[in-house]
Amino acid sequence: QLQLQESGPGLMKPSETLSLTCTVSGGFISSSSYYWGWIRQPPGKGLEWIGMIYYDGTTYYNPSLKSRVTISVETSKNQFSLKLSSVTAADTAVYYCARRSSESEGNWFDPWGQGTLVTVSS
Amino acid sequence: EIVLTQSPGTLSVSPGERATLSCRASQSVNSDYLAWYQQKPGQAPRLLIYGASSRATGIPDRFSGRGSGTDFTLTISRLEPEDFAVYYCQQYDTFGPGTKVDIE
């Protein structure tokens, strides 16, 4: 079945650029009808959508993060990536990647990766 | 921007009992776009319900969803030990704050 796995550094310093990759297995990232998204969850808090990408490179970002976020896709590697610039302690969170269905199917997220904790600390 | 409010914040229930969770939208939403997720400690969220009332693959039938307009509910008919978790509703790119279901 489709699986997603996040990878990237777990500890960062303020002002650095967070860089995470999500590797998709058991299916193709170039499948139509699906987007590929990033969601984060600060410790003990709720879920925040960061953004998503279609296999053709079309992106959508959370307006509150848009100035700092870049999501890209590499179909040949079945991967998509997140970059978040100028991180602060407020960006400390578990970062999840997930498949997002199209609007016609309901915009749900499934499946999710296991998540990776990114801590921003000096 | 639509805001989702979930109530109660915490629901204390005994195993075998029924749990009813509420998700209210700040304005009317298309029920086709309302989903529910379950999250256990240390795990990623899992899709339970999409389209307000359709169970995702592999979800037991003790989970049911209903609603329209601004008011949606997730019902767990008979709580099993593995159902104690946090539940989130979602519409488009907005998540509710979650309801924690814990053991009474």
- The rounded distance between the terminal residues' Cα atoms of chain A is 40 Å
Beta content of chain B comes to: over 45%
Order of helices and strands of chain B: EEEEEEEEEE
User: Radius of gyration of chain B over alpha carbons?
Assistant: 13 Å
How many DSSP H or I helices of chain B?
0
**Secondary-structure content class of chain A:** mainly beta
Q: From the helix content, strand content and strand pairing of chain B, which structural class follows?
A: mainly beta
Rounded Rg of chain A: 14 Å
Major sheet characteristics of chain A: 7 strands, mixed
Number of strands of chain B: 10
Helix content of chain A: under 10%
Task: Give me the number of helical elements of chain A.
Answer: 0
Shape of chain A: globular
Question: Proportion of β residues of chain A?
Answer: over 45%
Low-confidence stretches of chain A: none
Largest interface: A-B, 21 and 22 residues
Structure notes:
The complex is a heterodimer of chains A (122) and B (104). Chain A has no helices and eleven strands. By secondary structure, chain A is mainly β. The relative contact order of chain A is 0.32. The model of chain A has no long low-confidence stretch (mean pLDDT 96). By secondary structure, chain B is an all-beta fold. In chain B, strands 2, 4, 5, 6, 8, 9 and 10 form a seven-stranded mixed β-sheet that branches. Chain B has a three-stranded antiparallel β-sheet with strand order 1-3-7, with no helix packed on it. In chain B, a hairpin with a 2-residue loop joins β8 (86-91) and β9. Chain B starts with a strand and ends with a strand. The model of chain B has no long low-confidence stretch (mean pLDDT 96). The chains are: A mainly beta (122), B mainly beta (104). Chain A binds chain B through residues 46-49, 60, 62, 96, 98, 101, 103, 105-115, and chain B through 32-33, 35, 37, 43-47, 50-51, 56, 88, 90-98.
